[in-house]
Amino acid sequence: MKQSTQQAPRPKQPRGNAVLALSLFGVIAGMVGLSFAAVPLYRAFCAATGYGGTPKIGPAASPGVIAQTIAVRFNADTNPTLPWRFLPEQNEVHVKLGDEQVAFYHARNLDSGPVTGVATYNVTPEKAAKYFHKTACFCFNEQTLAPNQEMQFPLSFWVDPAIASDPSTADVNTITLSYTFFRSLDDAARSGALAKAGPHVGPLVR
To answer: Which residues lie on this side of the membrane: Cytoplasmic (predicted)?
Structure first.
C-alpha cells in the first residue's frame, strides 16, 4: 500500500511583512525628520528659557525700570573662513535694569568678492541669560556684504530687574554678550571652505 506523497501547501506570505516594511520606513523617515527639526527646536527652547547662555528673544515689554544698574559688555569673534572685520561699536555700557537699550556692531568685508555670513550668540554668565532679553537683533539671519562694503548691525535689549532679587544671580554685576560670525554654509560650499565653516548648523542659516 503506497503512502501518500502529497506535500503540505506552502504558507502564503503574510500581509504583515508589507505592513512591517511600511512601519519601518515610517520610523526611519520620522527619525530623519526629527534630526532636522531638532536644531531649530533646540534653538527655540534655548531662546525661550535662557538655557545654555542663550538670551531670550521676543517683543516682550520690560516690567518697569529701576535705579539699579548693570554693566553689559560686548564681544565679537569671526570664524577664520569669514574674511570680515567684525567689532562692537561700544565695549561696555551701564544700563538700568528694565531699561531698553540699543547697541551696535560693525562689519567690513575684506574680500574681493561678495561674502555671506551668519551670526550666533551667547550670554555669560549662563545663569544670567534668562534675564537678558533681546527685542531685536541680527543673529541667525544671513548677511551679505559686497567687496569692501561696511555695515552696521543694531540690536536692542533689556535686563529683567528680577535678576537682582534672584539669589542665584544677585551677585552678577556684569553680563557679556558675545557674537560670532561664520561664513554661511551655502557661501562656504561655493568657496570650498565648507570643511572649516564652523559649528553652526544648516537649518539655522537657511
So the answer is: 1-15
Q: How far apart are CA 115 and CA 187, in angstroms?
A: 7
Of 109, 95, 113, 116, give the one whose Cα is nearest residue 177.
95
Domains annotated for the chain, with CATH where assigned, are 51-205 (2.60.370.10)
What is the pLDDT at residue 203?
A: 38
From residue 17, give the alpha-carbon distance in Å to each of 22, 65, 68, 175: 9, 66, 69, 59
Please tell me what DSSP assigns to residue 203. Answer: H
Other C-beta atoms closer than 10 Å to the C-beta of 55 total 23
For residue 124, give the H/E element and its range.
strand 115-124
Cβ-in-10-Å burial (0-12, 13-18, 19+) of 3 comes to: exposed
What are the residues facing 72 on neighbouring strands? Answer: 93, 175
7-55 pLDDT, tens per residue? 555 555 555 565 565 656 554 444 434 333 333 443 444 444 444 445 5
Q: Which residues of 149-167 are buried (b: 16+ CB within 10 A; e: fewer)?
A: eebebebebbbbbebeeee
> 3-state DSSP call for residue 122?
strand
pLDDT band for position 76 (cuts 50, 70, 90): very high
Q: What is the pTM of this model?
A: 0.66
Rg (Cα) of the chain, in Å, rounded? 27
